[in-house]
Amino acid sequence: MVRNRKLSKSISDVGWGMFANFLDYKLKAKDGQLVEIGRFFPSSKTCSCCGHVLDELTLDIREWDCPSCKTHHDRDGNAALNIRNEGIRILSMDLGTPFLLIEAV
Could you list the residue range(s) of the whole structural domain that residue 5 is in? Predict the structure, then answer.
């Protein structure tokens, strides 16, 4: 069904929404909290060490060096760190000090 050009986006959105609902339910059962970050947060393009944001990073580039601090990054590992840090930042703004963060990467 996902190969149908007219329905694929809707089907994929429903699947992701169901996954997010299940994840939220399970986290609440374990006294956890699901933190959603913005859809367009530049997790891959942001240096997890110094915070420098690249202007452009194409999908074929899997590793890159930060022009500011010269740190070498694996694209996915760097994005995971940035997503974690953004979730902690959001929690600390809303709840004071975050006491528990359960990640799904």
Answer: 1-30
